[in-house]
Design a protein that fits this description.
The complex is a heterodimer.
Chain A (H helix, E strand, L loop, with lengths): L2 H7 L3 E4 L11 E3 L3 H7 L5 E4 L4 H9 L4 E4 L7 H9 L3 E4 L4 H10 L10
Parallel strand pairs in A: 2-3, 3-4, 4-5
Antiparallel strand pairs in A: 1-5
Helix pairs in contact in A: 3-4
Chain B lengths: L4 E8 L8 H12 L4 H22 L1 E8 L3 E8 L7 H4 L9 H5 L7 H8 L2 E7 L3 E9 L2
Antiparallel strand pairs in B: 1-2, 2-3, 3-5, 4-5
Classes of the chains: A alpha/beta, B alpha+beta.
The complex binds adenosine-5'-diphosphate (ADP) and magnesium ion (MG).
C-alpha cells in the first residue's frame, strides 16, 4: 500500500509531503502517548494519533516513520508542518475517529508488526 | 574517523514545544556522517528520551554528543532537582510526571528503561538539589 492509497481510504487531507505520497507502507501504530510509541513501536511506518504538538513529529522522526495520520479532523500547526517537511514526513488529517481509522487501515491490510528493513 | 567529533547543544527548559530539537539535529548530523541507520536509531531514541526528561523534570540543561572510532557517546547534564532513588526511577512505569506532561504525550515512566535498553552503557550520577548527569554509549558492533 502507498501513502496515497491511505489518503484515499481515509479521505484525508494532505498537510505536507504531497511529492512523496508514492512511498510504500506495510505497518502502522496508533497512540496518543508518545512515551509508548518510543518504548513499544518497532519499525512501523505510520503513526496514527490524536495528539497535536511538535513532539509528535519529532517522535516519528526518531522512530524513522514515514507518515503521521491525525484523526478527528485535527490540523497541524505551521510549526509542525515545517518540522515534518524538514524531516520528509507526510502529514495527513482525516475526519475519522481513532477507532475507525485503525479499523479501515487494518481491514485493508496494514499490519501492527513493523516493516522489516 | 581518526579524530573525535563533538556536538554540543543547550536544551531549553522553559519551552516544551522546542523539546527534542537537539536530538533531531544530532540525527541529521549522524546521517551526514554515514553512520549505520540502526546505530543512529538507538542514539536518537535514547537521546530524545533523555532530552525530554531534562525539559519535563529538570528545567533544561546541556547535551554533548561524541563520535569516535568505536562508539557514540551522549552526555546529558542538568542542574535540576536530582533523582532521589535511581533504582526506583529506572523501573518501568515509575514516573513523577504531572498530568499536564501526560496530556502532552509523555510521562509513562518508560524513558529511563528505554534509554538503558537502546544503549550499551548507561550511567546516572545525581545529587538532590544539584542536578543529574547521564552518560550513554552506543557501540558500532
Ligand atoms: N533529568 C532528571 N532530573 C530529575 N528527575 C528525573 C530526570 N530524569 C528522570 N527523572 C525522574 O525519574 C522518573 C522516571 O523517568 P522516566 O523513566 O523517563 O519516566 P517519565 O519521564 O515518563 O516520568 C521521572 O518521573 C523523574 O522523577
Ligand atoms: Mg521520561
Amino acid at each position: 500500500m502507498t501513502i496515497h492509497d491511505i489518503k484515499e481510504l481515509l479521505d484525508a487531507r494532505v498537510c505536507c509531503g504531497e511529492e512523496i505520497l508514492n512511498r510504500s507502507i506495510l505497518s502502522a501504530c496508533a497512540s496518543d502517548m508518545m512515551s509508548d510509541v518510543l518504548a513499544f513501536a518497532k519499525n512501523q511506518a505510520i503513526l496514527v494519533t490524536g495528539l497535536m504538538n511538535p513532539q509528535v513529529i519529532r517522535t516519528a522522526e526518531m522512530m524513522d516513520m514515514k507518515c503521521i495520520v491525525f484523526v478527528r479532523s485535527k490540523m497541524p500547526s505551521d510549526e509542525m508542518v515545517n518540522l515534518a517537511e524538514s524531516c520528509s514526513i507526510v502529514l495527513l488529517s482525516t475526519d475519522m475517529l481513532m477507532f475507525e481509522t485503525c479499523g479501515v487501515l487494518f481491514t485493508k491490510g496494514l499490519i501492527g508488526k513493523g516493516d522489516t528493513q | 574517523m581518526s579524530e573525535e567529533l563533538k556536538f554540543t547543544y543547550n536544551v531549553d527548559g522553559e519551552d516544551f514545544n522546542s523539546a527534542g530539537q537537539a536530538s533531531v539535529s544530532v540525527k541529521k548530523n549522524l546521517r551526514q556522517l554515514g553512520i549505520d541507520p540502526e546505530i543512529i536509531r538507538k542514539v536518537s531514541i535514547a537521546m530524545y528520551e533523555g532530552e525530554i526528561n531534562m525539559v519535563i523534570h529538570a528545567h533544561g540543561g546541556t547535551a554533548d554528543v561524541f563520535v569516535d572510532d568505536e562508539k557514540i557517546g551522549i552526555v546529558l547534564s542538568d542542574k535540576g532537582p536530582g533523582i532521589a532513588d535511581i533504582s526506583k526511577a529506572m523501573q518501568e512505569g515509575y514516573s513523577t510526571a504531572t498530568d499536564t506532561v501526560r496530556a502532552l504525550g509523555f510521562g509513562a515512566g518508560m524513558g529511563l528503561p528505554n534509554m538503558k535498553r537502546y544503549t550499551d552503557y548507561m550511567n546516572i550520577e545525581s545529587q538532590i538539589g544539584e542536578g543529574t548527569t547521564i552518560t550513554m554509549h552506543v557501540k558500532y558492533q
